[in-house]
Specification:
Blueprint lengths: L2 E11 L3 H13 L5 E14 L2 E15 L3
Antiparallel strand pairs: 1-3, 2-3
Length: 68
C-alpha cells in the first residue's frame, strides 16, 4: 500500500502565478522525491506604489513515501 504525504509551501515569483507554482515544485524537488501533485490552495500578490511587484502561491505538495 502506498503512503502519500502532503506538505504546504508558499512560493513566489516576480513574473506570474504560473512561475510561482513552478518555483514551488523546483524547490521542493531539491529535498523530496516522488512528487505526485500540487494543489494550489490560494494565490496572493504583493503591491507597491499601486503596482503588483510579486505573485505568490500557497501550495499543497503531495508525494509518495518510499518503503525502506
Amino acid at each position: 500500500m502506498a503512503i502519500v504525504k502532503v506538505i504546504e509551501v508558499i512560493a513566489s515569483s516576480e513574473k506570474s502565478f504560473d512561475d510561482a507554482i513552478k518555483n514551488a515544485v523546483k524547490e521542493v524537488s531539491k529535498t523530496i522525491k516522488n512528487i505526485d501533485s500540487v494543489y494550489v490552495k490560494d494565490f496572493k500578490c504583493h503591491v507597491k506604489n499601486g503596482k503588483v511587484v510579486s505573485y505568490g502561491a500557497i501550495c499543497k505538495v503531495s508525494f509518495r513515501v518510499e518503503d525502506r
